[in-house]
Amino acid sequence: MIIGVLNQKGGVGKTTLSLNLAAAYATSGYRVLLVDADPQGSSLRWSSARAEDVKPLFPVVGMAKPSIRRELPELAKDYDVVVIDGAPRVTDLGRAAIMASDVILMPVQPSPFDIWATEDTVQLIREAQQFKPSLKAAFAINRKIANTAIGRDVVDAFTEAAFPVLDSQVCQRVVYAESAVQGLSVVEAAPTSEAAREIKALAESVIKFNKPERKAA
Ligand SMILES: Nc1ncnc2c1ncn2[C@@H]1O[C@H](COP(=O)(O)OP(=O)(O)O)[C@@H](O)[C@H]1O
Ligand SMILES: [Mg+2]
């Protein structure tokens, strides 16, 4: 399964969700590869921040080039799950990452502005679905304030959204940044935390949404 974490908007949590999802899958026994497809290289920076003596859970490779579409399928054969940390902006790079994916996960903050701002990415996905009808896409709510309900206007905006919204929501929590500075994921830095629980739930939701064959134990 190749999961493209994409959204043309910067700062929505593409990198945060990508590396934490990758870690959740790796700790469940899947063979995981994290592909950094953003020229900014945040996932690569994250992996190099990891202490020398802390074993990596999965390899991180940089592939911020349009040839990702041709090159990734070959590389992906050796893994159960490949997560693409996508680039912001709608470019050839974004298009190539979409075409390389089986399922697109679009992180969005629970605000109508964030939902509306996905329009160009949604359009790209729709175009890609013409060539690749099996391509699936869903929104994942990120940075929800814990113990608050999502407002009616936001719910309405999501109801009208182009793709389904996954049930599992990720809240705003300091542990995401605190673990990232050490090159760690929340499932490693705080395995019993609410953050780890919500990331594992999101990882399960993506699997259910895509319904792939379960290869690893
Ligand atoms: N659920 C969250 N809780 C707290 N901070 C978050 C969360 N998700 C993302 N952030 C923070 O928001 C900023 C942008 O996130 P990032 O993953 O880099 O977004 P993107 O890759 O889409 O640009 C980072 O500082 C990150 O630590
Ligand atoms: Mg990023």
Textual characterization of the structure:
This protein is an alpha/beta fold. The chain has one domain: 3-Layer(aba) Sandwich (Rossmann fold), CATH 3.40.50. The chain has 10 helices and 6 strands, in the order βαβαβαβαβααβαααα. The protein has helices spanning 14-27, 42-48, 68-76, 92-100, 112-116, 119-131, 152-159, 175-180, 186-189, 194-210; strands at 2-5, 32-36, 60-62, 81-85, 103-108, 136-141. The protein has a 6-stranded parallel sheet, with helices on both faces. α1 (14-27) packs across α10. It is globular, with a radius of gyration of 16 Å. The model has no long low-confidence stretch (mean pLDDT 93). The chain binds adenosine-5'-diphosphate and magnesium ion (MG).
Question: What labels describe this entry?
Answer:
single chain; 217 residues; alpha/beta; Rossmann fold; 13% strand; globular; binds adenosine-5'-diphosphate; binds magnesium ion
Total number of distinct structural domains: 1
As laid out across the biggest beta sheet, the strand order is 3-2-4-1-5-6
- Shape from CA axes? globular
Bound molecules: adenosine-5'-diphosphate, magnesium ion
Main beta-sheet strand count, sense and barrel state: 6 strands, parallel
What is CATH's topology name? Rossmann fold
Order of helices and strands: EHEHEHEHEHHEHHHH
Report how far the terminal alpha carbons are from each other: 15 Å
Question: Which ranges are low-confidence, i.e. pLDDT below 50, for 5 or more consecutive residues?
Answer: none
Portion in strands: 5-15%
Rg, nearest Å: 16 Å
Number of helices: 10
Protein name: Chromosome partitioning protein
InterPro entries: CobQ/CobB/MinD/ParA_Nub-bd_dom, DNA_Partitioning_ATPase, McdA, P-loop_NTPase
Pfam families: CbiA (PF01656)
Organism: Aureimonas phyllosphaerae
